[in-house]
Specification:
A hairpin with a 6-residue loop joins strand 11 and strand 12. The model has no long low-confidence stretch (mean pLDDT about 95). This protein has helices spanning about 20-30, 40, 50-55, 75-85, 125-130, 130-140, 165-185, 190-205, 230-245; strands at about 5-10, 35, 60-65, 100-110, 145, 150, 215-225, 230, 250-265, 265-280, 285-295, 305-310. The protein has about 325 residues and is α/β, with parallel strands linked by helices. The chain has 9 helices and 12 strands.
Length: about 325
């Protein structure tokens, strides 16, 4: 699983003096990154929607990297957005698949900074021109962050800038992205989201030894589930034993929503997860549940304090 996915919208990266450098730098500076070069993957503009949606689902941070073409994205990236941000995936009654993911716009701009203001020849700020992409993030329930952009990123031999100059700007641009990503992935919200994913990955396995869960729990954890209330690590062990007696290993928990909310000095995770599993009696089940976790970060790493499960009644 890649924590970061970068969607490169440049239609011809080999001809780029800046976007190519930025992508190369990001691959060197970031861990667990999936750089998707659309010009290489889809030169015919026939987007594999299922593959692209899977890449987004597996990431926490989504970055659009593109040159600023006529105050917008290149046609290839626009086609990708139209196809991939589809109904009931990115929006619509069931379109919450990207909710809670971090979204960063990273774009290279040819014109000088002074041209992007009411008195300049472009009349509007870069941020104003990016409003359609900002609204895209809002509609999909993504966390919109300050865009990263650099002006004067065009090199025309003998006419405008130098290759060395724009490549140096590109390296600085990549450094700024890497720093922003690092801040996001180290935030309390990111740590708790990672905890949620790890928890359910372990629950899918239902291994005989439940020790892997203990570091994720505070010693005084209270677990409230339809089967009753379980207190402390010993209580969790009893509940886990009950789960193993009820379900066969290799079930599937599909996270449909993870929202982390700070309240005073505490954090609460609101989780919606769908469980498909087979019981030890051979019954196949498919159930949707809401969960609320209270999480403690006092030790630096998140630990669950309260764990509540409530099945969704249709």
């Amino acid at each position: 699983m890649s924590k970061i996915v970068v969607i490169s919208g440049h239609p011809n990266l080999e001809a780029s003096y800046t976007n190519k450098v930025i992508l190369d730098q990001l691959e060197q500076q970031l861990e667990s990154v999936d750089v998707r070069r659309l010009d290489t993957l889809y030169p015919d503009y026939q987007i594999d929607v299922e593959v692209e949606q899977k890449a987004l689902l597996e990431a926490q941070v989504v970055i659009f990297q593109f040159p600023f073409y006529w105050y917008s994205v290149p046609a290839l990236l626009k086609k990708w957005i139209d196809d991939v941000f589809s109904f009931n995936f990115a929006y619509g009654p069931e379109g919450d698949k990207l909710k809670g993911k971090d979204f960063i716009i990273s774009t290279t701009i040819g014109g000088p900074a002074e041209s992007y203001n009411p008195l300049g020849y472009n009349h509007f700020t870069v941020e104003q021109m990016l409003h359609p992409l900002q609204q895209l993030a809002y509609l999909a329930g993504m966390n919109y962050h300050q865009p990263v952009y650099t002006n004067g990123m065009v090199y025309i031999p003998g006419v405008y800038n130098t290759q060395q100059g724009v490549e140096e700007k590109a390296r600085d641009h990549a450094k700024r992205i890497s720093q922003q990503v690092a801040r996001l992935l180290e935030s309390p919200e990111a740590k708790i989201t990672a905890l949620v994913k790890t928890w359910f990955e372990q629950m899918d396995k239902l291994e005989g030894d439940c020790g892997a869960f203990h570091p994720m729990l505070r010693n005084d954890v209270v677990i409230t589930v339809p089967e009753g209330e379980f207190n402390g690590i010993a209580g969790f062990n009893d509940w886990y034993k009950m789960l193993r007696e009820t379900f066969k290993p290799n079930s599937a928990h599909r996270l449909e929503q993870v929202v982390v909310n700070p309240k005073a000095d505490e954090y609460y995770a609101e989780i919606r997860v769908r469980l498909t599993a087979e019981t030890t009696q051979g019954e196949h089940i498919n159930v949707l549940v809401n969960e609320e976790w209270k999480v403690d970060l006092a030790s630096g790493e998140p630990r669950i304090v309260t764990y509540k499960v409530e099945p969704v009644v249709s």
